[in-house]
Amino acid sequence: IGPRGHGKSTILRVLAGVNLPTLPDKSSVFFIASHLRVLYVPAETCFVTGTLYENLIYGTSPSDPDASMDRVMSICKRLNCPLHLRDEVQFGEGVSWLKTMSRSEAKLLSLARAFIANPEIIVLDKPVDTLNDVDTRNL
Q1: pLDDT at 5
Q2: Which residue intervals of 42-102 are DSSP H helices?
Q3: pTM of the predicted model as reported, rounded to 2 decimal places
Q4: What are the b/e assignments for 112-134, b being 16+ CB within 10 Å?
Q5: N or C: lower Cβ tally within 10 Å for the chain?
Q6: Which parts of the chain have pLDDT scores under 50?
Q7: 131 contacts 108 by C-beta, under 8 angstroms
């Protein structure tokens, strides 16, 4: 929490390994533990044309237990994703999702995708900026 333009998002991207810092001299060291699976969830949501299920398991092997339909649906339900989107996960066709969802729906599904990927560390940039109070508390 802090004023705009003071580097909050930048430090999150550095911690997640998305951006690497510029070190002041050769004696400086920056280390990110390579054994940790860190997932950065940016403030902007991103979905590709395809089924909603494919979007939610993106980056996870479809044969991985983390990508099972039961687990995906459980996470979506736990995050209080709207019923019509949960139906789309199970039965929907591929469309351009960002054109069909509200910003808060897209944010919830982006967060669901992070939990589905099951990393050791999740770095969230502005995780609740478009969510209502109920969804914020639920998260």
Answers
A1: 83
A2: 52-56, 69-78, 83-91
A3: 0.79
A4: bbbbbbbbeebbbbebeebbeee
A5: N
A6: none
A7: yes
